[in-house]
Amino acid sequence: MQPPTDPNPDFAVVGGGIVGLAVARELLARRPGATLTVLERDDAIGRHQTGHNSGVIHAGIYYAPGSLKARLCVAGARAMYEYCDAEGIRYERAGKLIVARDAGEVARLDELERRGAANGVPGLRRLDRDGLREVEPHCEGVAALHSPQTGVVDFGEVARSLAAGLERDGAAVRTGAGVEAIAAAPGGRLALRHAGGETRPRFAVFCAGAWSDRLATLAGAPADPRIVPFRGAYLRLRPGRAALVRSLIYPVPDPSLPFLGVHLSRHVDGEVSLGPTALLSPARAPGGGVGARRRLGDLAATAAWPGSWRMARRWWRTGLGELADALDRRRLARAASSYVPGIEAADLEPWFAGIRAQAVGRDGGLVDDFVIHDTERAVHVRNAPSPAATSSLAIAKLIADRVDERLR
Ligand SMILES: Cc1cc2nc3c(=O)[nH]c(=O)nc-3n(C[C@H](O)[C@H](O)[C@H](O)COP(=O)(O)OP(=O)(O)OC[C@H]3O[C@@H](n4cnc5c(N)ncnc54)[C@H](O)[C@@H]3O)c2cc1C
Fold first, then answer.
1. Closest residue to atom 21 of ligand 1, CA basis
2. CA 259 to CA 312: how far, in whole Å?
């Protein structure tokens, strides 16, 4: 049983993932004494993307210079390390290699190096074949970028720590409080109707991940972009084979997609994963715990969005490849063995899956950058895919600046 919470707080944050919790922390830090309630639909926080990802504190290499992702990833990684130091959260600056397997990939590696330098990624350096083998002795490639400041952490643990900090500072974190309706309320407030009753804040920030489009449109924001969910499944290297990977080994990604490619990651708990796949998903949450009705609703929403069909027409070949990868472990093993030759299908076992909340425009384009919209008395985070966990503390500052401006 949760204690009763203030029905009329100054702020409500909808969504108890890492972004919502970081935003709540920043709002309170700027206004000590303000009242704030986090409303989370699930019965625990951090259960969705925040708790099901690669756990990589990205350094900011990939993103177009000047984009929100570029700015907020570099600043967010710095802030994440500082936060983990302050709160005693385990992390490792494990370092990461992006490996070019042939001359064709070297030109794309050049572009990543240029972007990394423009984004101010610390310590980025180019390695030749011998250099990359010093970092990862079992890895093969013709060249690599090494990012020594890339790290790993459990973002779920970060979220739990943020929630505990909020409660210490007097905020309420309500679970089982899925917001279903949004309306104007008397006295310049918003009425948020949820499973636990009604909360009427002066201002709200919506950080609902895969459901961000639904809440934004309920609040009067434009329909574009919509969330289209992509399932990212991970395999795990069997214990005896985990020594093939010291830290993080990534391929050179396809520049036309906002995904980083199937990579090998040593997580902070020592497990080594291979993944994630990127398969169009019928549902916005991974299998368990989601009723058939909600899954059907998710599927219908994806099918009703013209952008989904335009995207499917453009990417059907890639989609078929992803489907084959999801069904056949040997294909993923082959992909991994193209840069770590020792890996075989027998070394891999199923691990976990996360659902990426990827915004897709009406034109069928996968929206690359973070997207934030304003509605009456509210701000909505509408596209916060990777590296939003890394960037969460910096996204929080950006949102809080926006709220300050709106309330001035
Ligand atoms: C497979 C995968 C790998 C990734 N790898 C990385 C990585 O290595 N590094 C990195 O930085 N990022 C990574 N990401 C991205 C990162 O996980 C997300 O960007 C980040 O977790 C987004 O956080 P969030 O709080 O916006 O969303 P979420 O964690 O999804 O939280 C949204 C919350 O809103 C709640 N909610 C939804 N609707 C309602 C409602 N109506 N009322 C109340 N609450 C509601 C949900 O229950 C949920 O708890 C990865 C993502 C995936 C899926």
1. 50
2. 16
Domain ranges in the chain are 11-49+156-223+369-407, 226-366
Specify the ligand 1 atom closest to the Cα of 207. Answer: 26
Beta carbons within 10 angstroms of residue 133's beta carbon: 15
Of the residues 50, 69, 149, which should be mutated to test ligand 1's pocket, given the most ligand atoms within 8 Å of the CB? Answer: 50
229 lines ligand 1 (CB under 6 A): no
- Is 11-49+156-223+369-407 in CATH node 3.40.50.970? no
Q: Which percentage of the chain shows pLDDT scores above 70?
A: 97
230 CA closest ligand 1 atom index: 53
Measured distance between the N- and C-terminal CA atoms of the chain, rounded to whole angstroms: 37
- Of 14-23, 220-229, 259-268, which range is least confident? 259-268
- The pLDDT tens digits for 90-117 are 999 999 999 999 999 999 999 999 999 9
State in Å: Cα 188 to ligand 1 middle: 30
Cα of 380 from ligand 1 centre, angstroms: 14
Spatial distance between the Cα atoms of 325 and 93, rounded to a whole number of angstroms: 30
Q: Which CATH architecture has domain 226-366?
A: 2-Layer Sandwich (3.30)
214 ligand 1 Cβ < 6 A:
no
For residue 313, the model assigns a pLDDT of 81
How much is the pLDDT for 259? 76
17: Cα within 13 Å, side-chain hemisphere: 27
Is the beta carbon of 356 within 6 A of some atom in ligand 1? yes
Report the Cα 69 to chain-centroid distance in Å.
11
d(CA 26, CA 8): 20
Nearest residue (CA) to ligand 1, atom 2: 53
**Does ligand 1 lie within 6 Å of residue 393's CB atom?**
no
Ligand 1 pocket check for 55: Cβ under 6 Å? yes
Q: What is the pTM of this model?
A: 0.95
More confident residue, 124 or 299: 124
